[in-house]
Amino acid sequence: MTLEIVQFMCLEDNFGILLHDAASGRTAAVDAPEAAAIERELEARGWRLDEILVTHHHGDHTAGIAALKAKYGAVVTGPAAEADKIEGLDRLVKPGDRFEFAGRPVEVIGTPGHTLGQVALYWPTEKLVFAADALFSLGCGRVIEGTMDQMWSSLQALAALPDDTVLYCGHEYTLSNARFALSVDPDNPALLAHAAEAKRLREAGKPTLPSTIAAEKAANPFLRADHPSIRARLGVDGAPVAEVFAALRRAKDSFR
Ligand SMILES: [Zn+2]
């Protein structure tokens, strides 16, 4: 039986995610941006919260942990590298670890850059990855704590997942990401189609996520840093690909 996945908005533009296994009745939240929104979704379905799986220490991913833990006694899993910055972790994981949720394996992929200890959670049997603030649709996270090289490696690790892996991320940023993406890769038909579809979805009041690894490899400029047209546009023709990525990320930081 497949996992039921519920995606909903929290705070301003964060995604809340619930995973539910009907056979065992177990439910997990990926991150805890906002306790009230998560409780509302749980109660609407008559679910209890058994686990919280935390990707990184930022407040818009952890603010709900204490209240949800107090109410449901949920077991909280998160990155060992950020244990000093996240209150309430019960189980520490590090890149390369494997654990189980409701009998399904979950692989911990290290994705440093946005924060130093951020992890993505990959569910190989379900073909799902929760990339939080590392990879967004048509964009990537700001490099706040790590180096550009680290972030580039993190994105490469995500891009190496099977093409049909379904991608969930931490924020609904696709439309603003599309504006930047089109400025650096304007002739990419996959990007033009992806951006048009995102616009249509938002106008219909729907989320633009999930995406897939294949769709992002085709349309997301941060995964296409070695494409000749992107190199040419940034004026970094012969540079190593990690430098092209860094130039892209810096251009996005100052893009208005
Ligand atoms: Zn963050």
From TrEMBL:
Residues covered by the Metallo-beta-lactamase domain: 13-171
Positions of Zn(2+) 1 binding: H56, H58, H114, D133
Record key words, sorted: Hydrolase, Metal-binding, Zinc
Free-text remark on how the cofactor is bound: Binds 2 Zn(2+) ions per subunit.
GO molecular-function terms, A-Z: hydroxyacylglutathione hydrolase activity; metal ion binding
SMART domains associated with the record: Lactamase_B
EC number(s) from the headed UniProt entry: 3.1.2.6
Stored InterPro entries: Clx_II_MBL, Glyoxalase_II_hydrolase, HAGH_C, Hydroxyacylglutathione_Hdrlase, Metallo-B-lactamas, RibonucZ/Hydroxyglut_hydro
Domain of life: Bacteria
Pfam families in alphabetical order: HAGH_C, Lactamase_B
GO BP term, pick one: methylglyoxal catabolic process to D-lactate via S-lactoyl-glutathione
Annotated family: Belongs to the metallo-beta-lactamase superfamily. Glyoxalase II family.
Protein name: Hydroxyacylglutathione hydrolase
UniProt gene name: gloB
